[in-house]
Every structure is written in C-alpha cells, then in structure tokens.
Amino acid sequence: MPQPAPTPCPLDIPLTWKREAPLLIVAGGLGALGFAPMGWWPLTLAALAVLIARAARARGPWHALFVGWLWGWGHFSIGNTWIATAFTYQAQMPAWLGWIAVLLLAVYLALFPATATLAGWWLVRRWRMAPVPTLAATWIVTEWARGWVCTGFPWNPLAATALGGFDRPGLARILPWMGTYALSGVVVLLAGHWLFAARAGAQRRWWAMAGYALLPVALFLLPLRGIDRPGSVPFTLVQPNLGQDEINDPTRYEAQFQRIAALSLPRQPGTRRLVLWPESAVPDYLQSGYDRAWYAASTYAGDPALARERMGRVIGPGSMLLTGAVDLEFRRRQVVGAWNVVTMIDPAGTIRGRYEKAHLVPYGEYLPMRGLLTPLGLSRLVAGDFDYLAGPGPRTLDLTPQGLGRVGVQVCYEIVFSGEVIDRTHRPDMLFNPSNDGWFGAWGPPQHLAQARLRAIEEGLPVLRATTNGISAVIDPAGGVRAFVGRHEAQRIDGLVPRALAPTPFSRIGNTLPLLWAAALLLAGLVASRRRAR
After folding, report:
1. Which of 531, 533, 418, 518 shows the shortest CA–CA distance to 135?
2. How far is residue 347 from each of residues 260, 304, 396, measured CA to CA in Å?
3. What are the pLDDT digits (tens) for 281-320?
4. What's the pTM value of the predicted model, to 2 decimals?
5. Could you tell me which of 440, 401, 395, 399 has the C-alpha nearest to residue 421?
6. Displacement of CA 114 from its chain's centroid (Å)
7. Residues 60, 63, 65: CA angle, nearest 5 degrees
8. 164: left (phi over 0), alpha (psi -120 to 50) or beta
9. What is the CA radius of gyration of the chain?
10. Which of 12, 65, 295, 332 has its CA 20 to 30 A from that of 101?
C-alpha cells in the first residue's frame, strides 16, 4: 500500500509574500524580547526557528535577503526602543522623532541578518551544506561585522539572551572559550533544535521531539554561578541618582556635588580605597588654563584647582578618585572639540592621569560629515556647537604605587564592543565602566548591564559600573552580579574588588576566536551534508 505523505511542519508550509512578510517582522520583534529586561529567551529561540525555516525555503537570492532583512527589521525595531527615550531629553528635536530614528536605524541594522541569510542560502545551494550550522556560521561573521562597520553598533548580540540571573551566568559561562559572537552562533544552533522538534512533532515522532526541544532548555538553564574571589583592593562605588533633566542645570550643580560628596565620604578617616564616580558626575572643567568664561557656571567659578581640591578632601587621605568629566581642546584660543574623559584625582586634588573615550556615539557625541549635514539642520541631533574627539583606545591606569591595582576604563557604551575593551599588552586587574544611562528609559540600562557582564566573562575580569541613576553594579569575572544599585536610587557600594582570573583564551586572541568557530561550523555543515548524501 502507498504510504501517506508525512505531515509538513507549519513553519515549512509555502506562504505568499503578503503572509510571509508580517510573519517574519512579528517573529523578529518577538525575538528581541529575549533581551533584558524581559529575558524571555524561549521567544528568541522560537523566532530564530521561524527565520531558519523561512530562509531554507527561499526561492532565490533576493528572497533569502529579504527574509533576513524583514526579520532583522522587526528585531531591531523592538530591541532598540530605548533610543527613542533619548529624544525626550533633546530640546532641539521633537520627541516623536525618536521613534522614527529607531525604525530608520533598524533599516540599516537589518542588513546584517539579511546578509547572514543570503550567505547561508548561497552556501547551502552551492555546496549542499547543512542549513543550521551554516546559518550559525554566517551569523557569527555578520554579527562581528556589525561591531565595526561604520564605526560599529554591536548592541544586543544574540549571546546576551543566554545570560542567566544576576547570580548565575548560565550558558554564557562558555564565553572565555568562544567569545560573544560565537555564542550567538550557538544560540542559532539551539534554535535549529527547536525547528527539528517542530518537524518531529508534525510527524508524531514524540521521543525525537522531546530530545530536540529539551536540549536548548537544559543548556539555557545551566546552574552555573559566578565565582566568589574577593581581592584586596577596597572600593567605594557611588550612584548619586542624578536625573537627566537636572545634570545640565547650572542652578543645581552645587546640590548635585553635595549629594555625590555625601555618598563618598570615608567610613573611617584615612581609609585606602578606590572611589568611583559615574560619567557626567561633575559639571566642573577640571583642567587648568581655559579662558575664565568657561569656568563661570561651575561649582567653583573660575578656579578648577579649588574644585579638584574639594574632591580630594571628600575622598580623604589614602584614596584615589576616578570620575567622569569633560576636557576641552583648544586651537588658537578657540574650542575645536571636547574629550569625554575619566580623570584620576588624588587626595591633594592633583590630576594623576586620564582616559579619553575612544568609541564615540555617532549623532550623539559627534556629527559625521558635519560640514554637509549642518546646512540641512541635522546639527540639532548633537548638543553643542562642536564634536567630541576620539581617544586612542583601551588604556590601563596604573594605581599599583597606591596599592589599588591596574584599572582598565571603558566609558558608557564602549563596554559593548567585544574584544576591544582592554590593553592586552598591559592587562588590567579590573574594568571600570562609568556611564550615564539616564537617557535610555527602562530598557536601555538593563541591556547595558547585560553586555557589561558578557565582557567580564570573556576577559576574566571584574567590571565595576558606576552610573548616574542606575543600574550600577559590581560584576565578578564569571559574570555574576555581586552587588547592584537599582534605577532611581542614591546609594553607594563598598567592598573589595573581585580578583581577576587568569587570561582567558578570548582575552589572548580576541575576535579571531569566534571567527575560527565560524570556520569550524562551516566545515561541520559541509561534512554533515556529505554524510547525509551517502
């Protein structure tokens, strides 16, 4: 007797373009709910399973490209909604324009998953490679490219959905041997298991369905915890709860300083410690030598030395302060730019060093092609009349003479750039990540914290985050959050900086490691297809 045709999986059923397009956009949007603060990672796996199934059925290269682009547009439109909140603090631009900016940015960012699906489709057709490991490999490469093309915007890699709760890193614990982009490829592989489970269920192969479905669940729920390795460097990390609406108000500068100073005083006189203040912590220009008019609105008008000395008195003998600040760059007595810096100040109020932010935010801290865009009125996207200048890159501040170790610094969103956060020739003992997350609503801060946790695990280093109004945290080198201050709280954290681990494989070779994993997945996809052909 003729055998009945197997029941097709619903995801494999041919669809008209009018039905497939909304399915892909909705799936991509739901997939973004796997990121913080929601953390609904099963939706991410299910959404990727939809993408894999539809990409495999693409009828040609343009179809494959648009499958990935539509999914990516939905994904980034939802995942980056926090950007719209920033426009509510930009007086020169209407708030509603923020939502237009989110959707337009998603148009660009969606090109990366589109490229992944197109490349995967071509490799499968050309070399008959297994679709799932092939797409995982192309996803690794395109997500890595998203980190540097057009200065890069690697926010919310798929790997961030693999993080567990604050006290356990979960599947992300394998980052030292893979790197963030390779872990994103693993997430794609596990989504493929859910697609296999759906296909097995359609054919009523229940045991196969259970096996495919439960493996990703088991891995995502791994009970791996952080590592409690207390060190010997005492610290005080301060979150002053400065609202974005008050940071640039000169009438409130003194009240802001008094608030952060009260939270920074030593518990006991003469305590040796590292005092950590956030980005945008002080309104004063701390460098001497500017025209007097530039100091007029500061808390110590006209005398930056007095401002520094007051900070030195606050931290007390034996301490060292790292604080966010702004330095100006002059040429022929005219300001030509500014530096977003972390300044190191000793108890005497002397500047002992600084770090200049290297990864600047385009259209936030500088305007690309300013000469062309200013006549179009787009200079209003950037506050002020001049751009911030980019520093040389990762640098380690050496505080070992003071017994406070070596500190690597990454200002604000610099921490999201995998493989670009430390000076590998002068490996630090910790990473300090001062930030002002007050621009970014409810979703931006927890997503930012999640990506700081990824850097801690990759590099085997503790990360200390000091923010203006949350979320500040102490992260151990295995990604566990040892202490934190929630949003809209004024509080300090005191303790000992967790001890760093030995250099990880990723910390030694950087993003060469995930690219090697991508090559291994391509080889696996080729081998799997040859074995199946036999």
Report:
1. 518
2. 16, 15, 21
3. 888 888 888 887 777 766 665 688 888 999 999 999 999 9
4. 0.93
5. 395
6. 22
7. 110
8. beta
9. 25
10. 65
